[in-house]
Amino acid sequence: MNAHSCKIYRYAGQGGNGMGRNEEDAVSKLFILIIIALIVICGIISAYVFVFPPGQQKVPRFTATIESSGKTVYIYHDGGDPVVKGSILIRINNETIPPQAISFLHAQDWPWSAGKTLKIEYPGSGQPETVQITHTSGSVQMVYSLRNSNSS
Q1: Over the stretch 118-146, which tens digit does the pLDDT of each residue have?
Q2: What average pLDDT does this structure show over 14-39?
Q3: Do residue 87 and residue 47 come from a single domain?
Q4: Are residues 26 and 82 in the same domain?
Q5: Domain end among 54, 70, 95
Q6: Which of 80, 111, 132, 138 has the most CB atoms in a 10 Å sphere around its CB?
Q7: What band does 75 get if pLDDT is binned at 50, 70 and 90?
Q8: Terminal CA-to-CA distance of the chain, rounded, Å?
Q9: Residues 71 and 136 in one domain
Q10: 64 contact partners, CB below 8 Å, separation of at least 6
Q11: Which residues partner with 72 through β-bridges?
């Protein structure tokens, strides 16, 4: 008896998509690398936002001298950081001063910086005795309290 042998050849790793096993492994590895890269990028962005939150401004530090003449208060910026318009609230004798009551000497303008003087017409009763400058920046609030050197 003559045995006929039949050899069946199978192409290793070839499925219906025409991709070999090595090619599938390469695509899987590439996909995994892309996912890892995206996770790392998201982590870096999250860390940056956590360390440097958006919208947070630096609270200015400055020194000032105040004087008064009658109901007019002068606040001289002695030095330090400049202060931008709309970032401070000024209170005299615990009364909020409206922005229209605040001006500069000698045609100066914002930002209020070293060498510039604010002139405030105090609309309240009595003489100005205490001045509070509140700087607000987002959730940060800093209060500077000054005592008028001319008050008794």
Answers
A1: 999 998 888 888 888 887 765 555 566 65
A2: 77
A3: no
A4: no
A5: 54
A6: 132
A7: very high
A8: 132
A9: yes
A10: 75, 76, 77, 78, 133, 144, 146
A11: 69, 121
In whole angstroms, what is the distance from residue 14 CA to residue 51 CA?
Answer: 51
Per the model's pLDDT, the better-predicted residue between 149 and 40 turns out to be 40
Q: Are 63 and 145 in contact (CB under 8 A)?
A: no
| Residue 1, domain extent | 1-54
Looking up residue 115, the CATH number of its domain turns out to be 2.60.40
Query: Are residues 99 and 35 located together in one domain of the fold?
Result: no
Reply yes or no on whether the pLDDT at 72 is more than 70. yes
Q: Are residues 48 and 66 in the same domain?
A: no
**DSSP code, position 139:** T
Q: Which amino acid is at 85?
A: K
Looking at 38, 54, 70, the residue that finishes a domain is 54
Predicted confidence (pLDDT) at residue 52 exceeds the cutoff of 80 = no
Q: How far is CA 150 from CA 19, 23, 84, in A?
A: 90, 86, 27
